[in-house]
Amino acid sequence: MSNQAILENNTALFRRAAISDQPNILADIYQDDVNIAIWQNELSELATQQTNDLRQSSEHLNMVLAATPDNAMAQLMENHALADKTALCQHIQILLDMFCTLFELKRAGLRLTLLDKAMCPKFHVDKIPCRLVSTLGGPATEWLAFEDVDYTKLGLASVGLSDDESGVYLHENAIQQMQSGDVALLKGSGWQNNQDAALVHRSPHVANNEKRLVITLDFID
Ligand SMILES: [Fe+2]
After folding, report:
1. Residues with Cβ–ion distance below 5 A, ligand 1
2. Which of the residues 31, 43, 52, 162 has an alpha carbon 20 to 30 A from that of 151?
């Protein structure tokens, strides 16, 4: 079935990106025709510096927490790698607060990871309702606009084929990349009425001796 196929209820299937430098753009993820909302944000100078300190250190970081807006800060700063990085932890706490407020959650699943290679290097959709993703430093997540995807080439259909070979994206200029600092909500296939229109994305290539610092927030409970 092509992306422009008419659904059983005769509604044309289409999705768009909502992108702005204002944080309230994230609420647009509730629009039925939006499958990605991006707040084009820049970290403060201090948070950027603390992120870069972490990326240049030999630290291994893969924190997984269930955190509330009230206890996120304390939980983050318990980690010795973050103990002196107040500005960075405050930024993460603000993101968690926004996520919990937007989706009326008491707490969220937080993962903060330093990555030296692509974790999910092939284009895919997430089988969840919605995830917040923000690359705090280093190359950021790559994604495809709905009209640039051939959904029939995803997953099992692409076994053994790279993204370049599989035909999953429809033209050379289709691959879009966020900037570090950007805060994105990626609508997955688990969102109501979005099973055939989830946001397609992948981890970027990471050069030798380079690290990305990435935060994700998920629904829990
Ligand atoms: Fe993903």
Report:
1. 126
2. 31
Q: How far is the CA of 202 from the centre of ligand 1 (A)?
A: 6
Q: In angstroms, what is the span from residue 84 Cα to ligand 1's centroid?
A: 30
Which two tokens mark 12? 């044309």
Asked whether the CA dihedral 148, 123, 129, 213 is positive or negative, the reply is: negative
Say if residues 197 and 35 touch (Cβ distance below 8 Å).
yes
- Find the 126 Cα to ligand 1 centroid distance in Å: 5
Domains defined along the chain, listed by start: 16-219 (2.60.120)
Instruction: Pick the more confident residue, 14 or 5.
Output: 14
Q: How confident is the model at residue 10 (pLDDT cuts 50, 70, 90)?
A: very low
Dump pLDDT digits (tens) for 75-96: 999 999 999 999 999 999 999 9
pLDDT of res. 6:
44
Own/partner long-range contacts of 22-31 (Cβ < 8 Å, ≥24 apart): 23/98, 23/183, 26/98, 26/102, 26/183, 26/185, 27/102, 29/102, 29/130, 29/185, 29/187
